[in-house]
Amino acid sequence: MTIQNRDEFLNQIAKSLGRPVKTKVERPVWKHAPQLEVLKNASQDELVEVLKQQCQNIHTTFVQTDTANLPNVLQQVVTDFGGESVITWNDERFEKFGVKKLMEIWPETGIKVYEWNPDTPKENIRQAEQANIGITISEMTLAESATAMLCSHPKRGRAMNFLPQNMIVLIPKSTIVPRMTQAAQKIHQQIEKGQQLPSCILFMSGPSNSADIESVLIVGVHGPVNATYIVIEDQ
Amino acid sequence: MMAMKTSDEQFKERVEKNLNDSFMRGAISAAQARFQTRRQARVEELGNWEEWRAHGEEIRKHVLENLDAYLYELSENVEKRGGHVFFAKTKEEASDYIKNIATQKQAKKIVKSKSMVTEEINLNAELEEIGCKVVETDLAEFILQLNDHEPPSHIIVPSLHKNRRQIREIFAKAGYDKSEQPEEMALFARKTLRQEYLTADIGITGCNFAIAESGTVTLVTNEGNADLVSALPKTQIVVMGMERIVPTFEEMEVLVSLLTRSSVGQRLTSYVTLLTGPKGEYETDGPEEFHLVIVDNGRSKILGSEFQPILQCIRCAACVNVCPVYRHVGGHTYGSIYSGPIGAVLSPLLGGYEDFKELPYASSLCGACTEVCPVKIPLHQLLHLHRQKIVEQEGKAPISERLIMKAFGLGASSSPLFNVAAKVASPIMSPFARDDKITSGPGPLKAWTEVRDFPAPNKESFRHWMKQRQKGEKS
């Protein structure tokens, strides 16, 4: 861990600004805060509706279910994507949502299942690269932009969000907030408390896309080609 | 070739060449229209866009006034998380540091995601010189790289000037033999580049916003390539312009919202990725080594000067997408990696008047750029300020201005040139009279946009304008 050339660099900045070097500054109280007005008093059900509408704009399939029916819904979505092979996190929430058992019987029905494993780095990438479907869980979900927040962890790899062809994100209804503002506030508070951030926090809104060829929207470039969100009534 | 500079041709020659490229002009005009429509929808739905802009402006101004303090905090936090920070005063220092890492790692292959600052420091050529294979993974940059390292013509969509038929021909060089359908061509890029990520030794990305409070780097993307570039290779190098920093996650969020709405008309892009240091101890992907290279390369000279507001820029290209001059002459005419109004202000500051003194004249001062800027940079006023400086410095109207006049003058004899001369000429007439009119804001814009296909004035009025303009130069 090194920091090189900092003093000289910062001195030059201070010189340009016509004052001595500062290494500390208080963040001011801002005059404006328009971001707090967006979906300000929306209920949880209204946020779900906003999320659902926005899914159409980002080429993402929206499905809603209660916890009891989640295994059936997940089975259907996996079947619709053609089954074959699934990669998931090693995450106790799958058990909590009642889909762990479903995942355990998939191999018997011809669907390969691989769990991200902290002990086998190379195999993780190999499996993710070959997997037809990736299944993850959103930590916080932004209604305005239909965005899932996914955090890296020894049992939850980064590349898993990008290498499989199809992406399924489980979205507990309780995780839905109006917009990125609320997620940023929460993360900021965690930092102030001295908590360590995950090395990668990903805000993902639907499948990858590009408009680099004649401004024509192409859905599915380097990351997933298709995405389905399953909103779970968990409250 | 210099890093900023993309052409050794004279400005006048570039104007003529690009005006006669009707494919390119059609592509740009259509793309501008699409960008504008999308942006407008996303801006209007908020209902209080002016307040958003005011917030964006106050954040950026505060950061610039306290840039040393925020860079100090950032570097401390990157180090705390096990990353390395290198402050590079010049582009040579930046590229030398990165070359050293490549040499130490015995890197054969380097994958990159789109970054304007790495273009600025001429990084690809430098790395190729020491024997590395450098692969651009953004679809547009992949296209340009295959086309013999063609320079970008737009800061968001570097290949904006290319049509699908041309792209198909470029891909054929790499063995592509299918149709010119964008989806099919993108699939080819996906397959080709997948292997590159998996076998690369180093990943290099830019940085949309660094976050001081945590040492985090924000990447705002749609394709997913930047995430693979940062997840798979063992070493990651992030290169950032020194002004691209915010205090906390809360300001990052606001600026990302301004950026995605202004640039591509999306509420958010598909991916907003926040990377803090190397991978955690027990994580199996992500880089083992993390380097942040913070580049000055002329920015500290802008800081504290009358041009300081240009450092507020968040590189959204909204100004490029409304600029009538850009629409007619295209990105390559600017001869800089930074084109459009932002490029016309920034290129002479970073690259010097010697190479870029014509650029401030590649504007009608209509003020459309200023009106759309999400962080309220007074772009057309800065362009005018450049013109004043250039005249002051040269002691008279610069020869370059005459050259441009001649280029536009020549236009009267050929149709595309004449059209642009007319379109550029007309709105310039009112602001040309006095400074106070120019600084009074984007008033003339209204007249400009209300008459989209502005009728070309007859030769008399154009000649009259030329005469007026020549008088103005002498006084």
TrEMBL record, chain A:
Residues 49-232 form the LUD domain. Gene3D superfamilies: NagB/RpiA/CoA transferase-like (3.40.50.10420). One of its GO terms (biological process) is lactate metabolic process. This is Lactate utilization protein C. PANTHER family: LACTATE UTILIZATION PROTEIN C. The gene is lutC. Belongs to the LutC/YkgG family. InterPro entries: FTHF_cligase-like_sf, LUD_dom, LutC, NagB/RpiA_transferase-like. Is involved in L-lactate degradation and allows cells to grow with lactate as the sole carbon source.
